[in-house]
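Notebook, student rotation project (T.W.).
Task set for the rotation: take a protein with a known small-molecule partner, predict the structure of the complex, and write up what can be learned from the model alone. Partner molecule chosen: adenosine-5'-diphosphate. Sequence and SMILES entered below by T.W., checked by me.
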Amino acid sequence: MILLNDSHFVGKGLHRECYIHPNNVQLCVKVVVAGDLSESKREQSYYKLLQKRGISWDILPRFHGLIETNRGAGAVFDLIRDFDGEVSKTLEHYLCAEQLASSENTGIKQAIGVFKRELHRQAIITMTLSPKNIMYKKTAANEGTLIVIDNIGNSDFIPICSYINYLAQKKITRKLLRFEQTVLKMCAHNNALQQCLLNLGSSARAV
Ligand SMILES: Nc1ncnc2c1ncn2[C@@H]1O[C@H](COP(=O)(O)OP(=O)(O)O)[C@@H](O)[C@H]1O
Ligand SMILES: [Mg+2]
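Predicted structure of the complex:
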């Protein structure tokens, strides 16, 4: 059993709290604090499928199994960190920031373009793609990549899209369209960033 305390706390979503793993600063442990384990179970079964498929884990953190903690069952994942060692922040954080250096804009735009391409190429199924469930991992001062940390997998009653690529691609296109609309709304107060991201669709196709 590992002991989690508030000094390890990273963040909290609707259902889970995320902590730095006390024995390995490259990992995080997520414990469920609201609701049941059904979301976690779905996530883990989709992870099994991706592990079998041997994906490259550049837009998803690796899953390292379950451990017992003082705060209940913990799911262990890679902890996303920036090039300088800081724990990465969500894409929502950057889109909503009141003061964002304009030098950041192109990095965010490029990261979204690469993310769209890779989600399609690796045929990764998600539920709603929300900027609060995507980390912007900075790889340099003005560059980064996007990594989805939540809402992965398929909530359809019959999750056939997970197995048939043509259907997966259609689903991914739909999820990405809504994601782009959310992104543009979220940064509406930052005119420079919004303008930069407006022609995302065309730029992403060109990547
Ligand atoms: N792998 C990770 N690396 C870094 N931070 C993370 C990671 N996973 C989650 N977080 C942080 O913890 C928060 C909650 O995690 P999340 O998985 O979204 O929980 P929930 O399922 O409750 O929505 C995220 O918004 C993010 O700030
Ligand atoms: Mg979340």
